[in-house]
Specification:
By secondary structure, the protein is of the alpha/beta class. Helix content is 41%, strand content 20%. The strands form 5 sheets. A 7-stranded mixed β-sheet has the order 12-13-14-11-10-16-17, sandwiched between helices. The chain has a 6-stranded mixed β-sheet with strand order 7-6-5-8-9-19, sandwiched between helices. The protein starts with 10 loop residues before the first strand and ends in a 5-residue tail after the last strand.
Length: 466
Amino acid sequence: MPEPDAYDPDVLTVLDPADGSVVGRLDCASTAEVETAVETAAKAAVDWARTAPGERAARVADAAARIEVAAADLALLTTREMGKPLDDARGGVDAGVGTLRQYAELGPLHRGRSLQGGWDATDLMVPQPRGVVAAITPWNDPVAVPCGLLGAALVTGSTVVFKPSERTPHTGVELARLMAEVLPAGVLQVLVGDGRTGAALAASPQVDLVAHVGSTATGRAIAEAAARTGAKVILENGGNDPLIVDAGVDPVWAAEQAALGAFANAGQICTSVERVYVVEAVADAFLDALVERAEGLTVGPGTEPSTDLGPLVDERMRRTVHEQVEGAVADGARLLAGGAVPEGPGTFYPATVLTDCTDAMTVMREETFGPVAPVRVVPDFATALTAAAAGPYGLAAVVLTADMAHAQRAWRELPVGTVKINAAFGGAPGGAAQPRGASGSGFGYGPELLDEMTTTKVVHVGTPRV
């Protein structure tokens, strides 16, 4: 992957991960520009909070319509910046549009409640806007994820300073432009920059809430900054999501689910399958089917219709993924598929299957964020469940089982925010989970996000004595 001719730390140069060509360059916001944006948002917050909820919702619905018209261009820009197949990128844009429309409908319905007090008084619990929301979002789904945070903040009456990932800044800027054009001045602003920009935004004393989706390390730094300023934080951070394959399931079907969970978007999904525990009764057939599925995937640029597996977002990510695979092999894992860095341009990496893995290996302990399925064969479901529940992360888990007693036990005992039984992905719209441990805290989706985005004031109105 070629590097820019002249490196400038104050300029973001984005390379297409499929061929190394330059997508574009953008200047990073300075600390002074960060503070100006926050101050502008704080001033705009006064009138935006007083705007009728129905009017705020109508503006967000208008923004959704504008994004829908531009969906093809946004999808192509996403693919050029981070590599995912074009159909997948378009699906992310469509999801973002749907999310904005969901919050446009839910916003005016968000309500407080009355309390049973004395006969001569009125007691209320009233949700109010927080003020200025800093939204710091990731590169792996650069439209759908921001739309959730931006939509929920805007319909509940807060203003937003939006900092997209430095890996997908052009997508973030275009998304913000489309939305800001139907909003009052200052209500939604975008800042381009790297970690320094995000740190300055999170540390601003005028920010009332920081919503972050991204790495655990960054989430912890944001939480530390917020502890000093008093800002509320919503965090969805790294995960190390397990998949359990129980005895009694069709091993070919199980392999299809494992492949989908581990290889979709080249493994670059927050809730990707990161480690697999398969009961030995079905292990051989499962591994054979998983290898066949991995080797059958077409690797190529995301713009090619035949591509199943696009490139990793950049060379740094590919290097990290490959180091984990090499480390596992050095520690005794067997490589059944993939595991080699291909020659030629682009940051491609093949779908990789490892077996004979142990939980001491980095590839099993940490989030890989690449198309890698490390497998540990276990004697029974109880062993798999115990291993799957271990570790500091608590984002999601998948359990494939025909035994409903096992399914009930798994969803009750796994210490994660989301448990999917017999499906690697999926679920009804509006679901909202709370990640645990190193994976973050707070509701990041669904109607509950409206509660997170507001603060509750208790009001007691007594009767004056005359």
